[in-house]
Amino acid sequence: MWAIWMSRNSLIFYGRSLNFDDVKRNAATQLVDFAEVGADGGWARFAQVAARWTPPSACSLKINTDASIRPGVGAAVAGVVWDGDGRVCWCFAERCQVEMDVDVAEAWAILRGIMHVGFSIGTAEIDFD
Q1: How far apart are CA 126 and CA 29, in angstroms?
Q2: pTM of the predicted model, to two decimals?
Q3: What is the DSSP letter of 56?
Q4: pLDDT band at residue 113, thresholds of 50, 70 and 90?
Q5: Most CB atoms closer than 10 Å: which of 3, 13, 72, 93?
């Protein structure tokens, strides 16, 4: 899957397309690498620490955000606001054509979520992930 995703991104962001054989070869190489790490037990310790999303407590909201940057282009931010029943209240995704550090982009995503909650829903207890 990673090889397909990276091939897609290469086409969208850089205008470079890979032929199917290159994508298959890349995927096979990554599978072998993954199997070798697993054979040594290198990833086994992480399997026990898997995170699991939980909805916020009743009468509160949770905001999940993410951001990415691309030098020379700008940033993209996205987020989802959830209610205490685990239902989506609002979501957003937007581009910012200003260059910034990824930490600033993450903060921008959080601010966008807080602004929506404050202006549209009113005051609430908010959890962040």
Answers
A1: 43
A2: 0.54
A3: P
A4: confident
A5: 3
Give start and end residues of each alpha helix (H) in 1-129: 2-14, 20-39, 44-47, 102-116
* Secondary structure class of 20 (helix, strand, coil): helix
DSSP conformation letters of 101-126: -HHHHHHHHHHHHHHHIIIII-S-EE
- Model pLDDT, residue 57: 82
For residue 119, give both structure tokens.
Answer: 């202006």
Percent of the chain whose predicted confidence (pLDDT) is above 70 = 65
Instruction: Find out whether 78 and 67 touch, Cβ atoms under 8 Å.
Output: yes
